Amino acid sequence: MHNFTWNSPTKLIFGQDTVKDLEAPLKAAGVKGVMLVYGGKGTFKSGAYDQVTDMLKRAGISFSDLNDVKPNPLVSKVREGVARVKAGGIDAIIPIGGGSAFDTAKAIAAGACYSGDVWDFYSGKAKVQDAMPIYGVLTVSASSSEVNGISVVSNPETQDKISMGDVHLYPKISVIDPTFQTSLPQKQTVYGGVDIIAHVLERVLDGDDGSELMDEQGYALIRTMMRVIPELIEDPKNYDSRAEYAMAGMMAHSGFLSLGRETRGDFSSHKLGHSISLLYGAAHGASLSVVFPAWSRYLYEDNPEPFVRLGEGVFGIYDGDDVDRALESIEALEDFFREINAPTTLRELGLKEEDIEKLAENARKILPYGSLKVLDADDVLEIYKLAY
């Protein structure tokens, strides 16, 4: 196990009817005006918007809305938010939603404290030095953005979808009320669940053989997700299943599973998936259910051990030689994605064979990446071919 420093500065408030618990901290911080950052109808359908605004009215805190945040959030919306914050009257930002709302809020929080263009943080031209406070209300579990300092934003002009991370971007407080997620469309539950599983797989399949304790935590999270996703497809209002789903989602990409690892994990699949979402508008989780099995099939013969351990810890696969067991583990994962109606090929996303080179060209722009194997340009192309 490698040395590590663990810092999780976000206070988490978890459970039913907990939005009201934001009132006292906001007043104690002297907040007089906030910007609400959210997407669309789902924010209202969940009941979250009404609960947040009622709380703010009781507290005597003014609020304005920045709505229509898209999945795969755009830098143009971030710039709009930054301009409005700089115009005055806003002391804090409250994202209401999932990763897109939180990622947008984090970018605005950093951009509002910077004299240049916010895209500088994503392109590597600048480093975050300060950020406005964020108090989040989660309505879609998937990315752990409610408890981490990571923000992912897309820039169609440059054809880039890039992440940045900084300690200043952690929310001060995040509220997770699982009841807000009972009204989610089934596909959103499925794709969010795939994202959660992918975040765990990126740790347990990173090739680090000295993190058995954290790997075991990861296997437990995957087994939990494989149980609760079908339960929620059957009964979307099952509170206990929603709560476990939300808890797993919070833990998966919080940094907890990276403790003691040589690297934070192997995020090649996420980077390959970003190009699919950016260029073809695929849901983030859908891109991952396609790419992850393909990435795994490309690497398992030369690196069977982590896939063997995955098979033992999640699927109960013990018979056969290492290579056969590794492949059986990948097939079991792919079968689960099919069972929950997540796509497993680029064809299912509407892509054509001639689109593969375009994908590869985009994904190569930020090479090198990878931990189990550091990918090169040829690797990227071959993985997309396997995904087709």
What does this structure look like?
It is a single chain. This protein has helices spanning 23-28, 41-45, 48-59, 75-86, 99-111, 119-123, 186-204, 212-234, 239-252, 268-280, 284-299, 304-315, 322-339, 356-363, 377-387, and strands spanning 11-14, 33-38, 62-66, 92-97, 135-138, 150-155, 160-165, 173-176. It has 388 residues and is α/β, with parallel strands linked by helices. It has two domains: 11-180, Rossmann fold (3-Layer(aba) Sandwich); 186-387, Dehydroquinate synthase-like - alpha domain (Dehydroquinate synthase-like, alpha domain), CATH 1.20.1090.10. Strands 1-8-5-4-2-3 form a six-stranded parallel sheet, with helices on both faces. A two-stranded antiparallel sheet has the order 6-7. The longest helix has 23 residues, at 212-234. 52% of the residues are buried.
End-to-end Cα distance, whole Å, is 37 Å
CATH architectural label of the largest domain: Up-down Bundle
Question: What would you call the structural class?
Answer: alpha/beta
For the sheet with most strands, the description reads: 6 strands, parallel
Tell me how many strands there are. 8
Sheet with the most strands: spatial strand order: 1-8-5-4-2-3
Indicate the percent of residues in helices: 40-55%
Tell me, what is the CATH class of the largest domain?
A: Mainly Alpha
Net shape:
globular
Rounded to an integer in angstroms, the radius of gyration calculated over CA atoms is: 20 Å
Order of helices and strands: EHEHHEHEHHEEEEHHHHHHHHH
Low-confidence stretches: none
Q: What name goes with the CATH superfamily of the largest domain?
A: Dehydroquinate synthase-like - alpha domain
Task: Examine the coordinates and then state which fold CATH places here, giving the name of the CATH topology of the largest domain.
Answer: Dehydroquinate synthase-like, alpha domain
Mean model confidence by pLDDT: 96
Beta content comes to: 5-15%
The count of domains is 2
* Continuous helix count: 15
